[in-house]
Specification:
Two copies of one chain form a homodimer.
Chain A (H helix, E strand, L loop, with lengths): L4 H17 L6 H8 L3 H7 L3 H27 L4 H14 L3 H6 L2 H9 L4 H28 L8 H22 L2 H16 L4
Helix pairs in contact in A: 1-2, 1-4, 4-5, 4-8, 5-8, 5-10, 7-8, 8-9, 9-10
The first copy, chain A, binds a DNA duplex (30 and 30 nucleotides) through helix 3.
Chain lengths: 197, 197
DNA sequence: ATCCCCATACATACTGGTTGGTATGGTATT
DNA sequence: AATACCATACCAACCAGTATGTATGGGGAT
């Protein structure tokens, strides 16, 4: 019976290294060092570097996205608009300084890999679609409840909110500054307020 | 007398390759092939791959940013809010399909390199600051003219606009879709309209 | 005008190191 | 005994960078 401990440590090490260096620049030897195993272990569990990268997306980044950004929108008890605002606030505040400097891992991979590898692109796109749908549904719910303006298109608005969020992360990453993230996040929250109706 | 034709072709080839693959994954040999020269030429004009990357930012990306995104804000004759909207519209429409798929070259480099190389980070940050200031000044001008709301902070708002713009580019890049860019851009323009006052 | 001098502007060939990937072998578990 | 699990050793390909060679053209001396 296997607990796949080695596999999990490989995934974690790969995630860390990819988050720091990007996928292409992430060295397998560096990952192996960090995980404390050797090439034999790696190629026992994964057929190639690319499949390791796919697994990081499927088994590491996706769960994080679900639990801290999507599920609070689905399962939350607050009114829709407040639920959106609190999810964004909490998600941002939960970020450590290092995570701000390194940026959103999903966005990083999407930006780096989507033009050059279809497998990565499909995965990142699927995650964005799920995220988008959770925001869009929350907006729709607010519209039926009557406390979100009726004249906005939920999908377009959700797309814009998502873009603004990722943009804030990008700005903060480049400025290497939590303050930039806070200022930019304030803009997002102000925009959300403008959706009340 | 030298027209630095070789140097310019190296810069252009490096820009293209970096735009497609990213800086780290851009192969010098691929750049040399594309430019039609050899290593001797490259290392005659640039001391290292990194300095070539810096030069691409300084001499290729910066001019593009200035002429199509910043100077229209400074020299434009439209009223401030319309000037912002038209600059954004025109800048977006000028993008070819390939450029949408490959994303904003400034954002690409910023995302990839800012956590791991201070030289890149300083350059991309300086460009973002210049961009930010041009937007911020346009907002201020609108406030003094009275057709932009007085209760918004120009710098914070400019930061949010910039984040939203870069976010739209990111979303469109990952979706590989001009339609996504258009929908998302609509959100930006709507937001800008909400600043009128 | 012509010779030399030498810097500029590249091309060619090569280096040590790293890359992702493989082949093989051993060991523990079932 | 067979399979899962993983370490070691090795590979060709590629990497950025360097050492060296060479063609060219302009400037000064004659």
């Amino acid at each position: 019976m296997s607990l796949d401990k080695t596999r999990r440590e490989l995934l974690q090490a790969a995630y860390t290294e990819m988050h720091l260096q990007g996928f292409q620049a992430a060295s397998l030897n560096a990952i192996l060092n960090k995980a404390g195993v050797t090439k034999g272990a790696l190629y026992h569990y994964f057929r190639s570097k690319k499949e390791l990268g796919y697994a990081v997306l499927d088994e590491w980044i996706q769960p994080y996205l679900m639990t801290t950004w999507i599920e609070p929108l689905i399962n939350g008890t607050l009114p829709p608009l407040e639920r959106l605002k609190s999810t964004i606030s909490q998600g941002s505040e939960a970020l450590g300084d290092k995570e701000i400097q390194l940026g959103c891992p999903l966005n990083n991979l999407a930006q780096e890999m989507s033009p050059i590898d279809e497998g990565f692109r499909q995965r990142t796109d699927a995650l964005y679609q799920a995220w988008l749908e959770s925001i869009s549904n929350t907006l729709k719910e607010g519209q039926t409840l009557g406390n979100i303006r009726q004249d906005i298109d939920p999908r377009d608005t959700a797309l814009f909110i998502l873009a603004a969020l990722e943009g804030c992360m990008s700005i903060a990453k480049n400025a290497q500054s939590r303050e930039a993230l806070v200022h930019c996040g304030k803009g997002v929250l102000n925009y959300l307020d403008s959706l009340a109706g």
